[in-house]
Design brief:
This protein is mainly alpha-helical. Helix content is 64%, strand content 4%. It contains six helices and two strands; from the N terminus they run αααββααα.
Length: 140
């Protein structure tokens, strides 16, 4: 029985040494192998490329990208909301759609731009300047 245990132990020792030999020659030992350096190198190159692209976009293409954003955000649009008229059962009109011009003004920008902007708005909508100034004074 003693010989049997001794032979089992010898076999286990030989297997253990063979495993150690394989681990010793492996390139993945504790993150310091050639493959790990290549992997970290690829990741580093990708990070450098990403940072350089961001720097290029913020530095060189800044004005172009700002204009593109403003084109998507600021725009003028004409909406024709024509509705049918409402009539009673005898065919007399109760409510009729009438085209109306609407203008939107940012009061902060209008206050900065001064008298010329108020004159331009009065001319565009065919309204007296005094009436526009009166309305603006009410909104403040």
């Amino acid at each position: 029985m003693g010989d049997f245990l001794r032979s089992q132990k010898e076999r286990a020792d030989k297997k253990g040494r063979a495993g150690e030999r394989w681990r010793r020659h492996s390139s993945w030992k504790g993150g310091s192998g050639r493959r790990m350096w290549v992997l970290w190198g690829v990741i580093g190159v990708l990070v450098v490329l990403l940072i350089s692209r961001l720097a290029y976009m913020y530095g060189v293409e800044n004005d172009k990208l700002r204009q593109e954003g403003e084109k998507r955000f600021l725009r003028q649009r004409v909406d024709m909301a024509l509705r049918g008229s409402i009539e009673d059962r005898n065919g007399k009109p109760l409510a009729v759609s009438v085209p109306v011009s609407t203008i939107w003004v940012n009061l902060g920008i209008l206050a900065e731009s001064g008298d010329q902007a108020i004159k331009d708005i009065a001319k565009a909508v065919s309204v007296n300047e005094k009436k526009i100034r009166y309305r603006l004074a009410q909104k403040k």
